[in-house]
Amino acid sequence: MISITELAMQYGQKILFENASFNFDPGKRYGLVGANGSGKSTLLRIISNEEVPSKGMVSIPKNLNPGLLRQDHFRFEEIKVSDVVLQGNPRLWEAFSEKEKLLAEEPGNEETGHQLAHLEEVIAEEDGYAADSQIEEMLSGLGIGSAYHHGPMKALSGGFKLRVLLGQLLFAKPSILMLDEPTNHLDIVSIRWLENFLVNEYRGTLIFISHDRNFLNAVATHMVDIDYEELRLYPGNYEQFLEAKALNETQKQKEIESLERKTAEMQAFVERFRYKATKARQAQSRVKQLEKMEIPDIKRSSRIYPKLKFEQERPSGRITLTSKGIAKQFGEIKVLNDINFKLERGEKIAVIGPNGIGKSTLLKILLGELTMDEGEFEWGYETSLSYFAQDHHENLKGRISAYDWLYQFGQQENISTIRGLLGRVLLSGDEALKSVSSLSGGEAARLLFAKLMLEKRNVLVLDEPTNHLDLEGVDALAEALREFPGTVIVVSHDRHFVSQVANHILELTPEGARDFAGSYLEYLEHFGDDYLSRDLALTQTRETQKPSALNGKQRNRKELKKLISKLTRETSLLEETISDQEAKIRNIDLIFSGKDFFKNAGSQKIENMQSSKIELEQELKNHLRDWETKTHKLEEARSQFEN
Asked: pTM score, two decimals?
């Protein structure tokens, strides 16, 4: 158990939080939420002993080992990817390394034999001979193809290197696992895998920061809210936290209003009757009561919503974009194949698919930044484009201030317009004078949105725009895009954001594109699945595996198609059942974590609920096993059907 006592943190005059006292309990999963700059990452650094609080203390038993995701992948550039993960368990890594070294020496030495025997004991204690399969599964789950598992880290891009470091941390199985925005560099397939791992495999205390609502709802058993200069603990996931916080704030506001009303009534009584002999004593009594009454200071929330509004100088023609047969290949790797779709004015299309499938490549082709190998596309009449790049930090370098950077795109505008736009994206006052290279991820993203508002184009092309935004920023962006009268093309791994914005879905697959005119939820209802529930990234890495017992040579395409349809329905139903059972288990855990539950509930009720939980967990385990089996068969059936 981690104990926080009278914890406070401030930088100069800026108070992040103070007077915080509560516990992080074993086996629980805590989501940290709060505005950008509220102190979420600071709290993680304090718990991991990397930063000293202004006041108070964090107590962690010596037998617990905290693990915090680091971003020092440059240390491992020449090391094999699977070995980087294995180093998450230093004892096992050292045992394997020492064993390999001893076996390379001259055999027959008695001392060497004793050392090898000891090393075998260590490897057995650490379950070392299962490590290879565990690491393979972990890397594949995080979306890293098997072709890269035994190659050097330097062969991977920065985002995939961070996935390897996440795998290293998960393989370490720390007693306390701390993750800062773990979903930022993951596609939705990998996010689903991580959710499952954290909920069903990891048994320690999890403390994590995320702006992904779905991830928070799926993983968290408790929420820690950093707001009003305090840390407050809430049981339940993000949606339950929102309800509880709204209730608390309403109640607090009512109490303050009641106190203010009572004070005003007393003050009026005193003013009216202070000089009347018959009421003087009562008036004096009210004065004394007023002196004793204290109306609490109302602290301002650190949650501030940017005021985004995208406008267009003139609308485009009815047809915004037509794409026919776009294909792109890098060397022997084909990332785009036969991409066909059409966009009309006002549509908001979400381009989805696993990492590496070519989503950003497609955007760059449409923007003219990359050439295509095959196909054609045509922008419609009077279309004008604004682009939010995933790697936008490349455009924000140097000592130029945020104000001067934005002004260069709107020199025809007056100063008040530029300052007004900066204020709407929360970069007012001194913040507007900060150099662009010193801006945080969230500040940089909001500055880019100010540029898009200034440009007033009728087509917005956005590549992962939510990556560095807090939850308030994501909500503000979603609302602004919904109200935008022009056309939006967006790549995003944030399921909640996509469901809030998109009215057209383009799913990229190795075979081509699945084009659907409708919302994300309608898309799921229509097809029963999408790449969220089938790991295309893994499918592409399994070409070296032998065909399974499906005996595809003896099955014609009609039978395979029927089997695929059947397995798709069954896996979809199993996912619904699994989700329902997980929710029931979370609800029982929520009841168990309630204040004084075990003191007030009768022994029979406790026993019944514990029995229900055990039964649900066993059923869940069986259903997960069935789901894995059917998913594997489904992937193989699809592979045979496509070949």
From this structure: 0.68
Residues in the chain: 643
How far apart, in whole angstroms, are the C-alpha atoms of residue 509 and residue 540? 10
Condensed to tens digits (0 to 9), the pLDDT of residues 145-157 reads 888 898 888 888 7
Could you tell me if 452 and 363 lie in one domain? yes
Containing structural domain, residue 513: 319-533
Q: Which residues pair with 104 in a beta bridge?
A: none
- Same domain (yes/no): 444, 558: no
Q: Which amino acid is at 434?
A: K
The last residue of a domain, from among 478, 507, 533: 533
User: Could you tell me how far CA 352 lies from the centroid of its own chain?
Assistant: 16
Whether residue 396 contacts residue 405, with contact meaning beta carbons closer than 8 Å, is answered with: yes
446 and 585, same domain (yes or no): no
Picking from 157, 94, 102, 144, the residue whose alpha carbon sits closest to that of residue 541 is: 144
Is residue 345 within 8 Å of 315, Cβ to Cβ? yes
- The verdict on 375 and 503 lying in the same domain is yes
Residues 405 and 364 in one domain: yes
Verify that 423 and 509 share a domain, yes or no.
yes
Instruction: Please check whether residue 144 is in contact with residue 161, taking contact to mean a CB–CB distance below 8 angstroms.
Output: no
Residue 482 placed within a domain: yes
Residue 207, burial from CB neighbour count under 10 angstroms (0-12, 13-18, 19+): buried
Residues 406 and 352 in one domain: yes
- The two tokens of residue 567 are 């397995």
Q: How far is residue 386 from each of residues 51, 308, 383, 458, 486, measured CA to CA in Å?
A: 41, 15, 10, 8, 11
Q: For residue 296, is pLDDT > 70?
A: no
Asked if 453 and 349 sit in the same domain, the reply is yes
Domain boundary among 125, 145, 172: 125
Count of structural domains, the chain: 3
E strand residue ranges, 365-510: 374-379, 385-388, 459-463, 487-491, 504-509
DSSP 11-32: ETTEEEEEEEEEEE-TT-EEEE
Calculate what percentage of the chain has a pLDDT beyond 90: 36
Distance, CA of 238 to CA of 496 (rounded, Å): 13
Higher pLDDT, 308 or 440: 308
pLDDT tens for 26-58 read 999 999 998 887 888 899 999 988 899 999 999
